[in-house]
Amino acid sequence: MKMYSHISLKMVAFACIVAFTSISCDNPADDDDAGEQEFITKVTIRLEEQGSTNVVSIIWSDPDGDGKGDFVGTAALKTNKTYKGSIELLNELADKPEERDITKEILEEADEHQFFYTFSSTLRPYAAITITDKDKNNLPVGLKFDVVTSALPSGTASQSGTLNIVLSHYSTIKKAGTNPGNEEDVNITAPLSLSN
Known about the structure:
By secondary structure, the protein is of the alpha+beta class. It is built from two helices and ten strands, in the order αβββββαβββββ. It starts with a helix and ends with a strand. The chain has helices spanning 2-25, 102-108; strands at residues 42-49, 55-61, 70-71, 75-78, 82-90, 113-119, 127-131, 144-149, 158-169, 183-195. Helix content is 16%, strand content 37%. The longest helix has 24 residues, at 2-25.
């Protein structure tokens, strides 16, 4: 009888510890939305050619939010030009209208986000991107940027390639301006062409 009571007390104590741990882990006070990844269904990059009214748009769309989005056409850039770039991100499936604009959210949490833009090896010698906006710690964000193109080799009329766009999210890794975060909100690769 004594042994049974001893075992029962141990089991009750263990159950209490487990229950307490579960409640503690599920405490709403411990929740922090700032570390959550963004849900994005549309990405629009707008490139305004300086000294011209020409605007190049790069649009990626994933209307059902399954992660299998695609680009609309192939963006065409010209050589020896400077483009002022901006990027807009939307969650078109959000229940509340104020939750649709992910760009605003990234701006508000700029110290937890950074865009990385990488041209393919076929375009890298002739196109470069410089991020022009900063967060509160004076580190790059990438919602605003410049694209500068240069001349193609003699006899080359055009060059095809891609632009990889990654929105890096920093939740457990500290943003330093050059390092990617531990999560990605966006990782898409757009088809591009460059011509004289």
